[in-house]
Amino acid sequence: MSFRSVGRVLPTKGFLIRLRERTRLLRSGVDALKMKRDQLVKESQNLLPDLRRRSEVEKKLEEAYKLLRLAYAAAGPDEMRKAALLTMPLLTEMKVRSVIGVEIPEIEIREFALATSPSLNAVVIAAARKFSEAIKELMPLVNSEAKFERLAAALADTMRKVNALEKIIIPDHEAAIKYIEEALEEDALEEFLRVKKYRQLKRGV
Amino acid sequence: MLKGAKRKYLVVRTHGLASHLTDPEDIRSWVFLEDERALFDKLSPTAYGSFFEGPEDLLDVSRVEEACLRVNSIRARRLISLSRGTPIEGLIRTFMSKYDIENLRRIVFSLLFGGRGKELRLLPVEHYVIDVEKLSKADRFETLLEMLEDRGLVRLLSSWLSSSERDVTEVDLALDRYYMGRLEAQLKTMKAGKRSPLSLLLYSYMENMLLRDLLKAKYLGVKKDVLTKIFSKLPFRKLLYIATKTDSLNEFLDELVNLAPYRPVSIEIERAMKQIGEPWVIEHVLTKKTYIDSLRIALKGSMTEAYILMYLIGSEWESQSIKTVLLGRMSGVSPEVLYELLAPPIE
After folding, report:
1. How far apart are CA B138 and CA A46, in angstroms?
2. Which runs of E-coded beta strand occur in chain B?
3. DSSP characters for A49-105?
4. Cα angle B123, B129, B134; round to 5
5. Residues facing A106 on adjacent strands
6. Residue of A nearest to B330 (CA)
7. Cβ of A115 and B168 within 8 Å?
8. What is the C-alpha radius of gyration for chain A, rounded to an integer number of angstroms?
9. Secondary structure of chain B: what % helix, strand, coil (to 5)?
């Protein structure tokens, strides 16, 4: 006899004991996964206020792009190129943090100096300032969104595992245990009848 | 009145040249034109027409920028060739040397911050006083100092280089101050009287330039001692005093609104700050003011050298307006915003 998630089933006492142990382990695994699932949900919920700030950041970026268009019109691309000469690279550091076993990337701004100078057209300075503000607010949102995405993926994975254990693997194991128990009971009954018959023959009934 | 016949001839020629400048109100109305074809038809008879072969060229950013710069340069060159050998040649060269200073600034920035080579793009104008083309070949700041012929500029850049802070705003403002110093020196060589239209126009020009620098310095939060150090010897004490006693741009604007000559500037910048949150109109407001002020002074002395400078300032405002219309349309800025940006100053 074979069960999909258990494999080949041997109707022996030893296998029954091993199977019972395995089922017990699976049940405690389900409990642990449920705890992980709850924790992941909690962590995801904590991120919601941060994620709701997306519209604010988008508005800031919109304003920055509006000013960039104005800068393009009023100062021209040549002035932008001059501003680019002053630009210092945005230095970031990427860290990987583990939250309940889920690896989450985190980007941290190490150095972000807005290099502007009075000879630049005011509209270019204004656009640069708006963009730097937007980027500073964008970074925590990027981190939160990345964290949320990873947590959501881990949550879906955990739910799938819990469902598989609860709906397929543990029922399969239980069915296998029941099958072995029945088989062993049948064997015991057969053995009992065989012994009884043998005794009758021996007594010469 | 001018003494020399050549000077008179030059001023009369400038009157003729000035008559070819496009009316700022006409340019302003172009923001509402339906398509590029209509705009091309309007531009064709102007000095800019020869830079565009068809309406599609009006969508070429680099062509637009180059045309606007080159028209100014061609006009200045024509005046220089007409005035060769007279003090006016020196005046025009000194006045136009702001483009040399601007290119030098770009070279300095690229040597200090940017990667050399493709990032450095000089304004496409021939040099007037400083051979920036030669200087652009410098690969190190020290080489640049060796190549510079002007001792004043070498002193300025070396002292900045040896300063502990090496604040980029300081060298930036110092280059503007150097330009103002050159204008003052040129005025002295021309022996123009204190109340002469030329003197009034040049000081008004410098005052507006200083105001623009101070407004942007306040906006960027430049230290007061830097402003004092750089601009203290200029004759515009009141302006500098207000700039050094106020802590922010808003405070500075609040003070300026109480002074009649600066009230329109302050009102217009504050209005922009209320609308967008940033004083993005500083350049346009000050360029407009410079043009209107120079026009006012030059019309009082229409047969003086002041008229020549007014023509150059007018030409700059014309090309700035045309650039704003063309690039603004290209980048999808609403016609109403562009129309307001090019409006005459509030009286």
Report:
1. 56
2. none
3. HHHTTHHHHHHHHHHHHHHHHHHHHHT-HHHHHHHHHHPPP-EEEEEEEEETTEEEE
4. 60
5. A95
6. A73
7. yes
8. 34
9. 70, 0, 30
Task: Find the helix or strand (DSSP H, E) in which A107 lies.
Answer: strand A102-111
- For residue B165, the distance in angstroms to the closest alpha carbon of chain A comes to 15
Which tokens go with B308? 């020549």
Question: A5 — contact with chain B (CB < 8 Å)?
Answer: no
Listed in sequence order, the residues at least 6 apart from B61 whose beta carbon sits closer than 8 Å to its beta carbon are: A76, A77, B327, B330
Quickly tell me which residue has 């089922």 as its tokens.
Answer: A23
pLDDT in tens, A90-125: 899 999 989 888 999 999 988 887 778 899 999 999
Structure tokens at B104: 């030098």
Copy the structure tokens of residue B322: 């045309």
For B139, the token pair is: 């690969």
Pairing of strands A91-99, A7-8: unpaired
Q: Tell me: the pLDDT tens digits for B252-289? A: 999 999 999 999 999 999 998 888 888 989 999 999 99
AA identity, residue B71 = V
* Burial class for A103, CB neighbours closer than 10 Å (0-12, 13-18, 19+): exposed
What's the pTM value of the predicted model, to 2 decimals? 0.83
Contact A122 B280 (CB under 8 A): yes
Which two tokens mark B223?
């230290």
Q: Go through chain A and tell me how many residues it has.
A: 205
